[in-house]
């Protein structure tokens, strides 16, 4: 931080300014007398004096409350530990509102006082024996299409579930310090008995991606309809329309009849 200009130097600057000297002339005059003062400092001194003559005063700085007790007390640390060391931990916002502290203080207690780290829960994808056999058989057919020219005309269609029941207490993470033993059920996402879901079917190939089709909930699997189902929807949905004869490649998804696919985006 630069040293503050003395009262004598400031008075000399104001006196020269009252005599009609410009800011550069004031700086040059002070330099000839042995005072090294930049033009910017001269301008600042003159502006402050002008404000003082006009009755302008700077507002006092509003400082936040000082010397407050620390929020990271042992009692709060224990409460935070109880709220986060469980299968579905509370959010930082909820804990901060409950303890009447800041979110930053809650995070400091979690990381510094408790030494915890966040971990994502995993979603298991177990395949049945029939699904494994299906992937093994169709994988060879898919590899045969991987040529320099045929690969662009492969049209793959698959479906996925979109869950509509996300407003629950089941979180996607948990906290651990790396040393304590974590139960296996903490690491897995809960599978509900009657989840509210919507099935969406989407196709993709070299030339683009098809729009999403909402599969009717009462749809039945019709494997013989595969060639007739994938190809028309794929050709009419490609963004650039350059695939004349895309080769339909079925994955593990079921094939549905034409009336079971709604050609509307969800």
Automatic annotation (TrEMBL):
Coiled coil: none annotated. Transmembrane segments: none annotated. One of its GO terms (molecular function) is double-stranded DNA binding. It comes from the Eukaryota. One of its GO terms (biological process) is mitotic DNA integrity checkpoint signaling. Gene3D superfamilies: Ribonuclease H-like superfamily/Ribonuclease H. The gene is RvY_14478. PANTHER family: HISTONE-LYSINE N-METHYLTRANSFERASE SETMAR, MARINER MOS1 TRANSPOSASE-LIKE PROTEIN. This is Transposase Tc1-like domain-containing protein. InterPro entries: RNaseH_sf (IPR036397), Transposase-MT_Hybrid (IPR052709). GO terms for cellular component: condensed chromosome; nucleus; site of double-strand break. Residues 240-266 are annotated as: Disordered.
């Amino acid at each position: 931080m630069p040293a503050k200009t003395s009262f004598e130097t400031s008075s000399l600057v104001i006196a020269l300014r009252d005599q009609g000297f410009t800011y550069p002339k004031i700086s040059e005059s002070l330099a000839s007398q042995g005072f090294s003062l930049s033009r910017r400092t001269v301008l600042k001194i003159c502006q402050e004096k002008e404000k003082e003559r006009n009755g302008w005063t700077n507002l006092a700085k509003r400082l936040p409350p000082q010397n407050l007790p620390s929020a990271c007390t042992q009692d709060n640390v224990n409460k935070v530990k109880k709220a986060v060391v469980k299968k579905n931990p509370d959010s930082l916002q909820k804990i901060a509102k409950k303890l009447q502290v800041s979110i930053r203080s809650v995070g400091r207690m979690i990381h510094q006082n408790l030494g915890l780290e966040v971990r994502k829960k995993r979603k298991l994808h177990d395949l049945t024996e029939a699904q494994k056999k299906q992937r093994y058989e169709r994988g060879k057919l898919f590899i045969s299409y991987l040529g320099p020219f045929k690969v662009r005309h492969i049209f793959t269609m698959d479906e996925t579930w979109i869950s509509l029941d996300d407003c629950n207490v089941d979180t996607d993470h948990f906290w651990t310090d790396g040393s304590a033993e974590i139960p296996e059920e903490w690491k897995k996402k809960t599978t509900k008995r009657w989840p509210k879901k919507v099935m969406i079917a989407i196709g993709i190939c070299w030339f683009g991606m098809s729009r999403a089709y909402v599969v009717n909930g009462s749809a039945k699997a019709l494997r013989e309809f595969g060639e007739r189902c994938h190809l028309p929807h794929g050709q009419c949905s490609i963004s650039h329309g350059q695939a004349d004869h895309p080769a339909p490649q079925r994955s593990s998804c079921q094939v549905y009849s034409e009336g079971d696919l709604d050609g509307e985006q969800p």
